[in-house]
Input
Amino acid sequence: MHLTEQTKTAVTVRVGIVTFPGSLDDDDAARAVARAGGEPVRLWHADRGLHGVDAVILPGGFSYGDYLRTGAIARFAPVMSDLVPAARAGLPVLGICNGFQILCEAHLLPGALTRNAGLHFVNRDQRLRIEGTRTLWTDQYTPGQEIVIPLKSGEGRYVADAATLRDLADGGRVIARYLGIDPNGSVGGIAGIANAEGSVVGLMPHPEHAIDTLTGPGADGLGFFGSLISSVTARLVRG
Amino acid sequence: MNGHAGPRADGGAVSTRVAGAARTGPDTVECAVATPDRVQPYAELGLDAGEYDRIRAILHRRPTDAELAIYSVMWSEHCSYKSSKVHLRRLAAKMPRSDALLAGMGQNAGVVDVGAGYAVTFKIESHNHPSYVEPHQGAATGVGGIVRDILAMGARPVAVMDSLRFGPADAPDTRRVLPGVVSGISFYGNCLGLPNIGGELAFDACYAGNPLVNALCVGVMRHADLKLAAASGPGNKVILFGARTGPDGIGGASVLASATFGDAILGSGAKRPSVQVGDPFMEKLLVECSLELFSAGIITGIQDLGAAGVSCATAELAAAGTGGMRVELDAVPLRDTSLGPAEILMSESQERMMAVTEPGSVAEFMRICAKWDVPATVIGEVTATGRLVMIWHGDVVVDIPPGTAADEGPVYDRPARRPASQDALVADDPAALPRPADGDGLRDTLLALAGSPDLAAKTWVTQQYDRYVRGNTVLATPEDAGVLRIDEESGFGVALATDGNARYTRLDPYAGAQLALAEACRNVAATGARPIAATNCLNFGSPEEPAVMWQFAEAVRGLGDACVTLGVPVTGGNVSFYNQTEHAAIHPTPVVGVLGVHDDVCDRVSIGFASPGASIVLLGETRPEFGGSAWAHVMHGHLGGRPPRVNLVAERQLILTLMAAAAAAMLDAAHDLSDGGLGVALAESCLRGGLGCRVRLPGDPFVWLFSESAARALVAVRPGCEAAFARLCADHGVPAMVLGTVGGDSLDVEACFAVPLTELADVHERTLPAVFG
Output
């Protein structure tokens, strides 16, 4: 891990990363947290307790195989019994891909993710426009900023009823929309949303795969982790 | 085994030992002794009369149903390599000696010391026949099987690749088979969490009805973690872990993969149940569970369950270890409790592994399996008897020397004869075919090639695969080779490419196999890596046809000789015979995978033109060589003449030059020249990097653009490095010709034609979506 001393501050932000059976991008999320200056803390689906972490990431993958409905079983994992109330009480949570699906199943975020319009799994370097930047996970971006991060999912088509969509739009809670090619038929091109408090964010594309030009299309994804770490650091320093 | 176990009451049937023809209970050794003349269905199971007699001679009695099941699968072409063994032994004997080889041919997969304390294991394997019968599950379980092979060596699987061949792209059957195969690979590999970093996709009428689905997996371990498949230490426990055993895939190896498809059999649907069903989620758990078992240090021996399931795992573990094993077949956890012993032994249910552990470690073993929700059951123990004994309901149903099933199967030196028609094929030189006469004709030819299914963009396929998972993918399709980072601190990594040109091999099997190895090495070196080892998947027609056997023998001989010259040993692989319908065999298709090493993946070189002003240099010698070329195939539907001349010394010098130039950071881009020659390579480099180029050709532009002379590559040299690069080429004796520069938004061939990149991109990218949706 490239955990550089310069980026570590007096307080270290500890970010829990949950591994469910079938989680796949947990190592990648941990690497991204470390690259952004945080300390990744691995959490196991079957354990209770959050070990005092400052934030949690639900990583991509196919939890429990996702044979039923994506995220439908993970929602009932023991670790979720502690995570859901903590998130409701303000703990920052980022759900990436399968993590976004789990957050919707757990009703921490509204709406649902369904089969891609094209019916195929789609892996592409996806252009996004960042919209909502008043969340703990996006405040290092500027509104309207265009970024490229990988999308890789078979069930990434976001759907919600009209009232929910209106709430999301009015509240600045759509954090990113797809640009260019419509990859999956999401309503309004929605790629990610936040809760009303801006602490819980779900994102279909994978910022943890865009932390450098060696292994990703660029470093555009680092801002999600950097935003979280700087906002939590500020809060911790303020006490 | 259709119904030989007979109906029994669920789970608790008492074996009734009846001397005679009655089938009220499973066949036991005692029964076999008492009824020596009972007629047995050996032919249905793929054994011939001579092989059946040999089993009787080994056992000094007739085999039981369960023993017959074991021998039929273990002596199948798929498991025993009975038609290929004499040739593969010669290949193994010829391999350059290498201290880097930690495990070679004959193991589950070859293991190579790549330096820095790491060992890499990789292997390519076919799943051709199942993928034709049921494309989605056939391809999915092909991925699952090769991943378990790699896991069984003690390594963490880190990436997969696929080499695919189908009938004509627009043939109705291809539209059934290809999308199913791609969705199967996508479903299994993505859910398992392995990046798909490359491979091949080609189309030819010869694969209609006989598609090729070859899956490669690569794994990484520390030296000390190497595991071998052997059951040693009497009293040690044998544990079956992973999925439960069901009735799927029974006879997959013996029947499906070891015989020619006939319409009569397929039409009846009799072989359909032979295809297994995959559960990638269980495989993911099995991978993580096995890795934790390895690191706990409690595995004495391990074997994956692939073709021939429990039969193969028990026989091979026992034969390679102390020599004896006693197995309680009743203990095997079943998904379908009506299965009898023979069916349990033949089942190819997926996602299963077998391990040997000391009695004192069983509790720890079970704890780790429980953590990962992986069912695990002690089914037997290692013995010093030299016999593989299996018990069913208290009766002995198997009692054989395990080596006779695992290692001492029949070996055939089948007749091989160069077919008389080969002369006419070679004499049919493409020199006589009409060629484009002017710039417009050359332009049309380039666009036709760039848009032909073989050479068109493969995005429709590869965007269904996750290439990012695990976060170490440095290069992936459409690059010349996949490149993976292994060590985040040092940047140490590996490169992998698979190649095979069946048209070349059809024209000259000896040269074709050599060209496949050379191309794969070139592709790996183009990224800057040092090629160090090879694996191969040899796809051929029926070994019972002397013409096919000649192709096979020549290809293996050619491959071996090329390995020696290039200093790259074959470490393992797979043979797939019977890829033919009636008497129409596929083109001989040896697919070669080459592993290369990067000291620092930050030095990797892409195929894409990325820097305006970089100087474009063609390396190697260009001759008018069109036999088996993409031009002859696409423009004229022609196959004849001789393949490009093989010059392995020139290949080696080119490889050394590419490696040295990459290490010295002289190159902005490097691209191997193969199908479609310089013209297609220029097009691909322009499209990949999003920049055009302007080149001037020194002679007949048709020959320069479309010849497929081997030992060539295209590079873009960084401004300021031109002189040093020229010296490097001269030092290595590699011809280097400056053709032009990178820049602009079109592919411009001076005095011939120019194609805007937008037009080129459209032609290149629309082909596969237009056919497959």
Remarks:
- The domain at 421-536+547-566+588-772 of chain B is CATH 3.90.650.10 (Phosphoribosyl-aminoimidazole Synthetase; Chain A, domain 2).
- Confidence is low (pLDDT under 50) at residues 1-23, 260-272 of chain B.
- Chain B has two domains: 78-406, 421-536+547-566+588-772.
